Amino acid sequence: MTEMVPMQSLYGSMQDENKICSFDIEVVSAPTTPLLHPMARFWWVDSGAGTLALNNRRYPLKGGTLVSVLPWQITDIVAVEEPLRLFVLAYCFDNVNEIVKTVYNPGKGPLSLLRAMEEDPVIGLAGEAAKEARALFLRIRDEIGMAFAPPPREGDAAGALGNLYITNKLVEILVTFLRARGRPEAPPEGRGTDPSGIFLYLYSHLQQKITLAQLSRIFFMSESAISAYITSTTGLSFFDLLHEMRVGRTINYLLYTDFTLEELAEILGFVDSAHISKVFLARIGMGANEFRSTYQKVGNLCRIRDKRAYYALVSYLYRHYSEDLRPREVGERFGMSPRELNRILLYQVEMGFSDFLNFVRVNRASELLLQTDKTVLEIALEVGYHSEKTLSRHFLRFRSTTPGKFRRTVQLQGPG
Question: 219-254: buried (b, 16+ CB within 10 Å) or exposed (e) per residue?
Answer without folding.
Answer: bebeeeebbebbeebbebebebbbbbbbbbbbbbbb
